[in-house]
Every structure is written in structure tokens, then in C-alpha cells.
Amino acid sequence: MEEKKSKLSILTNGFIKENPVLVLLLGCCSVLATSSDGINALGMGAAFSAVMIMSNIVIAAIRKIIPDNVRIPCFIVVIAGFVTVVQLLMKAYAPALDKSLGLFIPLIVVNCIILGRAEMFASKNGVFDSFLDGVGMGIGYTVVLVLMGLIREFLSSGTLFTQQILPETIPGIKIMGLPPGGFFTFAILVALVNYMTRDKAVHVRDFGEEDLEIARALRAADQEKEKAAKAAKEAAAETVAKAETSETATEKVAEVIEEEKGA
User: Fold this and answer.
1) Neighbours of 14 (CB within 10 A)
2) Per-residue b or e along 54-73, where b marks 16 or more CB atoms closer than 10 Å to that residue's CB
3) Least confident of 56-65, 214-223, 230-239
4) How far is the first Cα of the chain from the last one, in angstroms, to the nearest whole number?
5) What pLDDT, in 10s, does the model give residues 167-183?
6) Where are the alpha helices (DSSP H) in the chain?
């Protein structure tokens, strides 16, 4: 089995190596929809990170008492609780941002990044490691979101965080503020990350390489069990067949003896 990752490796895993957006390509819907400008991107990233970190901590703390057959509903309940808290805080202290992000704050409940990390990491590791994982994934998600927001905002209106950078006389590329601009920016960033990591060793991109090794080990163990069960079944069948043959032979010998006595 693969050795346990260091604390630093767990923390930095979500930056580039397993970045949830640019490498794993998860949660793209909210990224494309809320990255029209820097303010929206930063607000969405902060809300996501808060839910990600707190959910990881709680799920890791209660992982041993959650029944395996209802673990996903339990994860969703935990995540939904923190999403509700974040949304209420946002409504109270940042109503304009809450109105701008709209439905995408409640949709954090079913964000596949948070659910995926809960299933693949928090439910199998301790509280502190899960906290580090949540921080790393939250930072990786937020950095990508803010970077996309700033690029799109600057190209579409010449501003950064609503502050005018380019003279207003210079026309912006309006399409960058529209949905197609999100796809263009996202595609360029994904291509850039792939180019930067092209010489690195190729790994299967899942929610954790250690989980892949565990899955392989479990699969191999299951195959060995199946082989052992099959061999035991064949041996039992062979033993039964030999016993039946021996019993038949004994009966024939007894019959011959009886015949000889009668003669």
C-alpha cells in the first residue's frame, strides 16, 4: 500500500497536481457562471472554501459512526447545513453579492468537488488531514475562479475588482463578459496547465492516487478470494465424487461376498 502523504503534500495537492477545476475538471458549471468579474469570483470562492473546509472537518470527525449505506445522504446533510449558514451570513453582510451569485450559493450543496472530497478523503482520514485537504482544494478552486474573473473583467470592461484600469475610451471585448467568454478563458487556462505539466509523470486523475492503490489492492484481494472459493468448491466436488465412487465399490464388494456365501 502507498505510504501516507505528508501534511505539506496534502495541503498543496489541490493547487496544481489535483486542482479541482483545471486538472480534475469538476465544478465547472459554477466556475463558468460566476467568473464574469473579480468580485463575484472572489465571493463564490470564499463561500465554497468555507463550506469545503468545515464539511471536511465534520465528516472526518464523524466518519466512524456514519453507516456505510447512508453515507452520501449524511454527507449532503452536513454540507447543506454549512451552505445554509454561509448563505445567511452573505444575505446579512453582503446582500448585493448574494443577489449577484443567486442560485449558485445553494447549489454548493451538490457541488461534485465537495461531495467527491468527502467521499474519497474526509471519510477515510483524520480531522487535521481533512482540514488541510479542504484548505488546499478551496485555495485551488478560488485562485482559478478569481483568475478567470479578473481576465474576463479586464478584457470586457477594462476594470479589475470594479476599479477602472484602462481608459473608458478603449472599447472592451464585450463577449468576454458573456458565457462564451467563460468557455474561452477556461479552455485557455486548461491548455496552459496541460502545457506546463506535460513533462511530468502521468498519473490517473482521480480524487486521490492513494485511493486508486487501495481500490486496486481490494480488487486483487477479491480476485484471490474468488479463486480460493472456486478451488475449494472444486476440491469439495472432487471429494464427494471420490466418496460416492468408494461407496459404490464397497456396495459391489458386499454384493459379491453375499453371492459367494449363497453359493
Assistant:
1) 27
2) bbbbbbbeebeebeeeeeee
3) 214-223
4) 74
5) 888 888 989 989 899 99
6) 7-12, 28-34, 38-62, 71-93, 95-101, 112-117, 127-157, 179-196, 209-262
Distances (CA, A) of 206 to 38, 127, 133, 215, 228: 29, 21, 14, 12, 31
Please tell me the distance from the alpha carbon of residue 160 to that of residue 153, in angstroms, as a whole number.
6
Query: In this structure, are residues 58 and 48 in contact, taking their beta carbons and an 8 Å threshold?
Result: no
Q: What is the mean pLDDT of residues 106-112?
A: 90
How many angstroms separate the CA atoms of 125 and 135, rounded?
15
Say what the alpha-carbon torsion angle 133, 106, 183, 196 is, to the nearest 10 degrees. Answer: 0
pLDDT category at 261 given cuts 50, 70, 90 is low
Of 18, 120, 133, whose CA–CA distance to 63 is shortest? 120
Instruction: Specify whether the CB–CB gap between 180 and 170 falls below 8 A.
Output: no
Cβ-based neighbour number of residue 116 at 10 Å: 18
By the 10 Å C-beta count (0-12 exposed, 13-18 middle, 19+ buried), 238 is classed as exposed
pLDDT at 151 over 50: yes
Q: Which three cell numbers stand for residue 7?
A: 501534511
pLDDT for 211 beyond 60: no
- Residue 109's nearest CA partner among 68, 62, 48 is 48
CA distances from 189 to 14, 40, 151, 167, 195 (A): 16, 19, 11, 27, 10
CA-closest candidate to residue 83, choices 132, 48, 112, 41? 48
**Per-residue model confidence (pLDDT) at position 3:** 47
